[in-house]
């Protein structure tokens, strides 16, 4: 069960979405934002439902997905700390276009549709940050469409690993564990094919699996 709590301006000051706001603006915003804890596999929003809130991720990871009547899923993206979701329907008054499910225990901030629109109208920096977020998602969608059209499964898996990797002591490492099943849903392939690709990448020296993390070797970096 989720738990709700109010937030402080000190907390909001460290949220990238609100980085351009001054103390007074943060104080006004804090009165309309609620802090929410959810467990693993919680459905935060469901495709087709009315849009009523914006969500910001404080910690934890969530997947954005679409599914058909047969239950087949496509994962559009993985969200982490500092990212936000749910803004599109708030801007165009359309129902939710995708579902969002937590991959692990998460802490979120949520702001209602009415309060979000009011704050957008009053704060240019907030509006600009939201627009930049939308542009980022459009670019990511363009890259994904291009990958699906122009790359084989090996290329799509390699590109996904590169996009998910973080810099750790001079190496590119996928730190957060992601299942082969979810990788398959992200690259448009079967789980069996992804398992085969991951094994081949490991045997060929493109990746090194270290427990729950994956280190990317120079071969895969040069292949990008």
Please sum up the structure shown.
With 224 residues, the protein is α+β, with helices and mostly antiparallel strands.
Structure description:
α4 (113-122) crosses α5. 28% of the residues are buried. Helices cover 42% and strands 27% of the residues. The chain has 224 residues and is of the alpha+beta class. Strands 1-2-9-4-7 form a 5-stranded antiparallel beta sheet. Strands 3-8-5-6 form a 4-stranded antiparallel beta sheet. The model has no long low-confidence stretch (mean pLDDT 88). It is globular, with a radius of gyration of 19 Å.
Furnish the topology, listing elements before pairings.
Layout: E1 3-6, H1 9-13, H2 23-30, E2 33-38, E3 43-45, E4 53-59, E5 62-67, E6 73-79, E7 84-85, H3 87-92, E8 99-102, E9 106-112, H4 113-122, H5 124-150, H6 153-164, E10 166-168, E11 171-174, H7 180-187, H8 191-203, E12 207-210, E13 213-216, H9 218-223
Antiparallel strand pairs: 1-2, 2-9, 3-8, 4-7, 4-9, 5-6, 5-8, 10-11, 11-13, 12-13
Helix pairs in contact: 4-5, 6-7, 7-8
Question: Briefly, what CATH class of the largest domain?
Answer: Mainly Beta
What's the end-to-end separation, in Å?
Answer: 43 Å
CATH superfamily of the largest domain: Jelly Rolls
User: Radius of gyration in whole Å, from Cα?
Assistant: 19 Å
Mean pLDDT: 88
Strand content: 25-35%
**Helix-strand pattern, N to C?**
EHHEEEEEEHEEHHHEEHHEEH
Number of E-state strands:
13
Structural domains: how many: 2
Q: Strand order, biggest sheet?
A: 1-2-9-4-7
CATH architecture call of the largest domain: Sandwich
Provide the structure class. alpha+beta
Any idea what the shape is? globular
Characterize the biggest β-sheet.
5 strands, antiparallel
CATH structural fold name of the largest domain: Jelly Rolls
Percent helix:
40-55%
**Low-pLDDT segments:** none
Number of helices: 9
């Amino acid at each position: 069960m989720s738990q709700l709590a109010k937030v402080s301006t000190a907390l909001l000051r460290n949220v990238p979405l609100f980085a351009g706001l001054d103390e007074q603006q943060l104080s006004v915003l804090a009165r309309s934002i609620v802090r929410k804890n959810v467990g693993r596999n919680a459905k935060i929003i469901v495709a087709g439902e009315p849009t009523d809130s914006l969500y910001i991720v404080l910690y934890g990871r969530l997947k954005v997905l679409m599914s058909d009547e047969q239950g087949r899923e496509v994962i559009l993206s993985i969200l982490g700390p500092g990212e936000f979701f749910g803004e599109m329907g708030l801007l165009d008054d359309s129902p939710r276009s995708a579902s969002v499910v937590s991959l692990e225990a998460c802490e979120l901030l949520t702001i209602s549709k009415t309060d979000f629109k009011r704050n957008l109208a009053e704060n240019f920096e907030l509006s600009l940050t939201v627009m930049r977020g939308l542009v980022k998602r459009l670019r990511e969608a363009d890259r994904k469409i291009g990958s699906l059209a122009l790359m084989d499964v090996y290329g799509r898996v390699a590109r996904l690993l590169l996009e998910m990797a973080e810099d750790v002591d001079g190496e590119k490492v996928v730190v957060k564990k992601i299942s082969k099943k979810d990788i398959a849903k992200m690259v448009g392939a079967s789980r069996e094919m992804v398992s085969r690709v991951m094994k081949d990448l490991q045997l060929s020296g493109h990746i090194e699996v270290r427990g729950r993390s994956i280190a990317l070797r120079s071969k895969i970096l040069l292949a990008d």
